[in-house]
């Protein structure tokens, strides 16, 4: 798909928003009016009859091009899954693979109502090209992994700086650079501190894995004397610009620290359950302590899709199940995590259906079984529907999917299939050498 948007005004006519039948007008990529009387001339008119509108969704933790690894290795524990299966295959990735894998991810996200995402991976200049082509928003970080080696650290620093410069040169308000120190078990404290300083100097966000497994915490305490949260803090990585993914094995002091520092904790319930990390993020404590709360899918090899509707439901259910409380994480909070909170975590303005906000809009099929009956649209969106109910998606006023048609879909699927074949062939050749 190529950029087709030229700032057209849009009118969505007769759509249901929180039980009200309204018209929505969009000018210059922002909501201009929402109400019974809104209307007038528009370049693009969308018939909203038979649709329910919600704000666009934001996925705050993923590794987009891992779409290429979907189903490649399942049902394993995290450390073995990474070191025996994922990292050996990723060693053969090329920039073209990441370009097609990220386009495939964007396609899947658009089809399920996601308009923005937070990515950490490799060949991120190619990921940026893919995001630009597909028209959604993203915060992109190079996965900084120095494995406690000085020479490797220099390479990671170079790659991180190069990505920041190239994204700056793109001058696309929908694409932001971030720094992506992978975790305390893959990055030295020198590397972590460099990332913190670089993010401060450049005023860019931080994307890091935190306390995903019990092993991460016990190994860290054995090695450093302190917990992963404290390591990140002493390296300067806990800031209001930080998205910390997983946050499963936090204690109450960790939660207080994340709250004090204004960190956003990205909950990834599907991945956590699939990898059986053994504990749910302490949502209640983090909320009490004032941390930001948002939602992510993680990569397609540990989920195995990018459907934020499923993630909202899994988050609400996992929290209720793990903390023995049916009242924790109600539907409205799950939707808030996936929309406005997610946008805020990535430093985007969107995720709200309000006049003046960027026009991130998702239309759901009002006539689908999952929306019948519709006592409470938020309940249906979180507990009953999945991404298959999404019919139309707008991001900053651009129509990315209309009536389930995404322009250029076949080309993306073809490109991704070819990338997968090449990747597997290179891997096979290296094993038989
Ligand atoms: C950027 C690197 O991160 C790897 N990765 C993917 N999922 C996870 C996870 O759940 N925890 C830690 N690291 C993960 C990915 O394969 C890249 O190598
Ligand atoms: Zn991850």
UniProtKB/TrEMBL annotation:
Cofactor, how bound (note): Binds 1 zinc ion per subunit.
Residues of the Amidohydrolase-related domain: 53-399
Alphabetized InterPro entries for the sequence: Amidohydro-rel, Deaminase_MtaD/DadD, Metal-dep_hydrolase_composite, Metal_Hydrolase, MTA/SAH_deaminase
EC number: 3.5.4.41, 3.5.4.31, 3.5.4.4, 3.5.4.28
Keyword terms: Hydrolase, Metal-binding, Zinc
Cofactor: Zn(2+)
Binding site for substrate: 90, 182, 212, 298
Biological processes per GO annotation: S-adenosylmethionine biosynthetic process
Catalytic activity, reaction form: S-methyl-5'-thioadenosine + H2O + H(+) = S-methyl-5'-thioinosine + NH4(+); 5'-deoxyadenosine + H2O + H(+) = 5'-deoxyinosine + NH4(+); adenosine + H2O + H(+) = inosine + NH4(+); S-adenosyl-L-homocysteine + H2O + H(+) = S-inosyl-L-homocysteine + NH4(+)
Family affiliation: Belongs to the metallo-dependent hydrolases superfamily. MTA/SAH deaminase family.
Other notes: SAH is a product of SAM methyltransferases and is known to be a feedback inhibitor of these enzymes. As a result of this inhibition, organisms have evolved efficient enzymes to metabolize SAH via different pathways. The pathway found in methanogens differs from the canonical pathway, it uses the deamination of S-adenosyl-L-homocysteine to form S-inosyl-L-homocysteine for the regeneration of SAM from S-adenosyl-L-homocysteine. 5'-deoxyadenosine is a radical SAM enzyme reaction product which strongly inhibits radical SAM enzymes.
PANTHER family listed in its UniProt record: AMIDOHYDROLASE-RELATED DOMAIN-CONTAINING PROTEIN (PTHR43794:SF11), AMINOHYDROLASE SSNA-RELATED (PTHR43794)
Quaternary context: Homotetramer.
Annotated function: Catalyzes the deamination of three SAM-derived enzymatic products, namely 5'-deoxyadenosine, S-adenosyl-L-homocysteine, and 5'-methylthioadenosine, to produce the inosine analogs. Can also deaminate adenosine. The preferred substrate for this enzyme is 5'-deoxyadenosine, but all these substrates are efficiently deaminated. Likely functions in a S-adenosyl-L-methionine (SAM) recycling pathway from S-adenosyl-L-homocysteine (SAH) produced from SAM-dependent methylation reactions.
UniProt-recorded name of the protein: 5'-deoxyadenosine deaminase
């Amino acid at each position: 798909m190529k950029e087709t948007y030229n700032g057209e005004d849009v009118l969505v006519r007769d759509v249901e928003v929180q039980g009200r039948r309204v018209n929505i007008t969009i000018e210059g990529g922002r909501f201009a009016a929402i109400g019974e009387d809104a209307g007038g001339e528009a370049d693009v008119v969308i018939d909203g009859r038979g649709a329910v509108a919600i704000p666009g969704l934001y996925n705050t933790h993923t590794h987009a091009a891992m779409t290429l690894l979907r189903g490649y290795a399942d049902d394993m524990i995290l450390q073995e899954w990474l070191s025996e299966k994922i990292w050996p295959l990723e060693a053969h990735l090329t920039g073209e693979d990441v370009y097609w894998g990220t386009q495939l991810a964007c396609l899947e996200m658009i089809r399920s109502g996601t308009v923005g995402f937070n990515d950490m991976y490799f060949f991120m200049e190619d990921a940026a090209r893919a995001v630009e082509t597909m028209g959604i928003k993203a915060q992109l970080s190079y996965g900084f992994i120095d494995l406690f080696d000085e020479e490797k650290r220099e390479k990671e620093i170079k790659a991180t700086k190069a990505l920041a410069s190239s994204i700056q040169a793109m001058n696309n308000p929908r694409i932001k650079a971030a720094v992506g120190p992978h975790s305390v078990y893959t990055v030295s404290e020198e590397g972590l501190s460099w990332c913190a300083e670089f993010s401060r100097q450049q005023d860019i966000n931080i994307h890091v894995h935190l306390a995903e497994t019990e092993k991460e915490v016990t190994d860290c305490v054995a090695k450093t004397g302190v917990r992963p949260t404290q390591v990140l803090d002493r390296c300067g990585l806990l800031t209001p610009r930080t998205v910390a993914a997983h946050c499963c094995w936090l204690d109450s002091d960790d939660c207080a620290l994340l709250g004090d520092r204004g960190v956003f904790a990205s909950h990834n319930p599907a991945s956590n359950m699939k990898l059986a990390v053994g504990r749910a993020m302490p949502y209640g404590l983090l909320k009490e302590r004032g941390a930001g709360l948002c939602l992510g899918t993680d990569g397609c090899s540990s989920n195995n899709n990018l459907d934020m509707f499923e993630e909202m439901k899994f988050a609400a259910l996992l929290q209720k199940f793990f903390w023995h409380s049916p009242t924790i994480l109600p539907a409205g909070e799950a939707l808030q995590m996936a929309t406005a909170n997610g946008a805020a975590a990535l430093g985007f303005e969107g995720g709200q259906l309000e006049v003046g906000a960027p026009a991130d809009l998702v239309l759901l099929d009002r006539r689908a079984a999952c929306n019948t009956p519709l006592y409470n649209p938020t309940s249906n969106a979180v507990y009953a529907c999945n991404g298959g109910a999404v019919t139309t998606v707008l991001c900053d006023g651009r129509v990315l999917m209309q009536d389930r048609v995404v322009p250029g879909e076949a080309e993306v699927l073809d490109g991704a299939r070819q990338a997968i074949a090449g990747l597997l062939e290179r891997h096979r050749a290296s094993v038989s050498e």
